[in-house]
Structure formats: structure tokens, C-alpha cells
Amino acid sequence: xxxxxxxxxxxxxxxxxxxxxxDGIDMDVPAKVISSETVYTGRIFHVDDMRIALTDKQGKxxxxxxxxxxxxxxxxxxVHDMSTDRYLIERExxxxxxxxxxxxxxxxxxxxxxxxxxALRELAxxxxxxxxxxTMGVDFVGDFYSSEGMTDELAHIMVLHLGPFRREQRHFDAxxxxxxxxxxxxxxxxxxxxxxxxxxxIQHEALRRLIARNSDKDKPSLFS
Length: 224
Hints:
Layout: H1 6-19, E1 32-41, E2 45-55, E3 61-71, E4 74-81, E5 86-94, E6 99-103, E7 106-108, H2 115-127, E8 129-131, E9 137-145, E10 154-162, E11 165-167, E12 179-184, H3 185-190, H4 196-215
Pfam family, one: NUDIX
EC number: 3.6.1.13
Organism: Bifidobacterium longum subsp. suis
């Protein structure tokens, strides 16, 4: 019997099944970086051209090439006002999709910054919302790579359930332009949001609301 945690046992079973389709590369042996050269440096990211060795089941190494966009980790927040059962939505220009896109409060973390400190800093800068940390509930949804085949950007995704909060002046970067508003859940669920990280947070909240609604059908629920 394979020991370890339930997660480790699951991964052991998965690896055993997946090995049946192997083309010879031993995926139990970690990949080895042979070389890495920075070929582009921008304002908020750089690109590394890498040569990587994968080991086959006979111990022979096979060299592959990959380019990786190196980017700071980020925070993504679905923000819920418990007193009104409304959610914060934003709109701003996104160069990747070349449109003014709907989304959630989000932003890059500073080096060494605590995840929650970064989330509350970005929330205040973009929307002016400053929660009472002592009464705020936090659902940590998880940490997800934005596109693990091409970038190391890691998104820390969460849902913030706010009690009392105050409003302060927003603080944008010189080239940053963000609109924000509180909307009901029904509108948020129907909004066309194209950011995968935002949708992870919204789907997490949709499941939470469904569970809360069905836990006691005889009582009115704030989350229905």
C-alpha cells in the first residue's frame, strides 16, 4: 500500500495510469535546466531562453528548448459586501485581449510582500475600499499559474467577505485607468468576464452560495 497523504496517494495512482502512455521520458525524474539566457527585459517582465534536459527510462538525457516569461506573482480578489450582498467589478483596458475588459480587483505583488497585504493594498489603490481586517472573512481559493506552459506568473486567488469598510481616495499609476462599481450577484454571474483567474474566483463563490442556499432551504439566506 502506497503511504503518504491522500493527495500523494492520488498522484501515485494517476502517475501509474499515465505511465502507460509514456513515450519513454521518465517523468519521475525532475527536469534539469542546462542553460538560461535572458533575451528580453521589459518594464514588468523578462523572457528567458532555456535549454532543458529530460531523462528517459534508460537514463539518457533529451534536450528541449523553451522560452519562459518571468513575471512577479499577483493577487486576484472577488470582493463581497456582506451588508448589501453586492460584489465589486472593474473595467479597464487589457492589452492582451485589446479591449476594455470586465474583471476583478487584481495586481502585482511587490518583492517580499505578504499576500494579504498585497491584496488589501491593491484593493485600496484601485477602488478606494479599505476593509476592517478584524471583521473581514477570507476564502483562499488557491494559487494558480496563469499559463504554466509559458510563464511563471502565480496568481493568489481569494474571496473577501467584507464587514465594515471605509472609502479612501484611489491611487493609480500614471498609465492606469480603472472603473469600479458594486453590483448584485445576478449581474456578476451574467457578466462576460474573459480573465481565467477572475472566473476561478467567481466559480468558487458560485459553489459557496449554492451550498449555503441548500444547507437550509427553510431559512432565507444572504447568499441565495
